[in-house]
Design goal:
Blueprint: H1 13-21, E1 25-30, E2 35-38, H2 40-46, H3 50-53, H4 65-77, E3 81-90, E4 96-107, E5 113-122, H5 128-150, E6 154-158, E7 161-170, H6 172-189, E8 193-203, H7 207-221, E9 225-229, H8 237-240, E10 251-253, H9 256-266
Parallel strand pairs: 7-8, 8-9, 9-10
Antiparallel strand pairs: 1-2, 1-5, 3-4, 4-5, 6-7
């Protein structure tokens, strides 16, 4: 490949060596859009010699003038810097190459526009099948998030009384969602007592016991009484025991019926059992 001496001091010495070693195609232009520098990667990308590019309009490397103008328009609209703008270049043989462009305007010490430099990365656009698969994955992620919320529903069962039912494996990440959802619900519905049912939950991490104690403490700090059901079945009772000494009036029950009765009592409602 013929060596073309770059114009201007900015492309000489160490900077030129750095740009020549860059794996991305680098093209610099002057204020009139004339190419003043290209590195080897740029020559390889458009299958041209340096002498075929330096001194020519930047439009030469684009698929058409419209694409070149669109890149320039995006640069001006963004204040002189763009990142991963999608466009198309054209090789010497006419082959079209999709590229992503990151570019910036160059200015002198007085702030006057003197040109620009761009980094061009070739890429393969997504096919229709790949785009469809990406949309399907997004749909599955949305469903998974919905299922996670359904696995830890929080709802009001009586004015002032709310309930959180935890189903399935309970790890730190899922527990954080439950805690945030429960506290938001308590603030929104002015909950006075919260019934937490752990009878169908499975503790996935030892840290979960610590998180449960913290959640109970936070529920009490926001002004609601906390009634917990089913700790025994989660096999966390032993882990929680040394942690609950500083939690006043922690109410735990082995059955949902007993827990519900205690929660109703906490808001001043007594269940009268019918005789006979």
């Amino acid at each position: 490949m013929e060596k073309v001496k770059p114009t201007g001091k900015a492309t000489g010495g160490y900077l030129e060596a750095l740009l020549q070693s860059c794996p991305d195609a680098v093209i610099a232009i002057d204020a009139k859009g004339i190419i003043t520098f290209v590195n080897k990667a740029a020559c390889d990308l458009v299958v041209c010699e340096m002498r075929d590019l330096v001194g020519k309009s930047i439009v030469t490397v684009y698929e058409n003038e419209k694409d070149a103008r669109e890149t320039n328009r995006k640069l001006h609209l963004s204040g002189g810097v763009i990142h991963l703008h999608e466009s198309k270049l054209k090789t010497k043989t006419g082959k079209i190459i999709p590229v992503r462009i990151s570019a910036a305007h160059l200015k002198d010490s007085a702030g006057n526009y003197i040109g620009g430099v761009g980094f061009f990365q070739a890429y393969r656009p997504w096919t229709a099948a790949e785009t469809g698969m990406q949309e399907y994955c997004k749909e599955l992620e949305d469903r998974l998030e919905e299922w996670e919320e359904l696995g830890s529903p929080v709802f009001e069962i009586w004015p002032g009384l709310s309930m959180a039912v935890v189903v399935g494996r309970l790890d730190s990440l899922r527990f954080e969602r439950l805690k945030r959802s429960l506290l938001d619900h308590i603030r929104t519905y002015k909950t006075r007592a919260a019934l937490i049912d752990l009878s169908t939950a499975i503790a996935g991490e030892a840290e979960v016991a610590v998180q449960i104690v913290k959640m109970i403490r936070m529920v009490q700090l926001v002004g609601a009484k906390c009634v917990v059901v089913g700790i025994e079945s989660t096999m966390m009772a032993e882990s929680m025991e040394p942690l609950v000494a500083d939690i006043a009036s922690l109410n735990t029950y082995s059955s949902l019926e007993a827990g519900l009765e205690a929660a109703l009592s906490a808001i001043g409602i007594e269940i009268c059992k019918k005789k006979g």
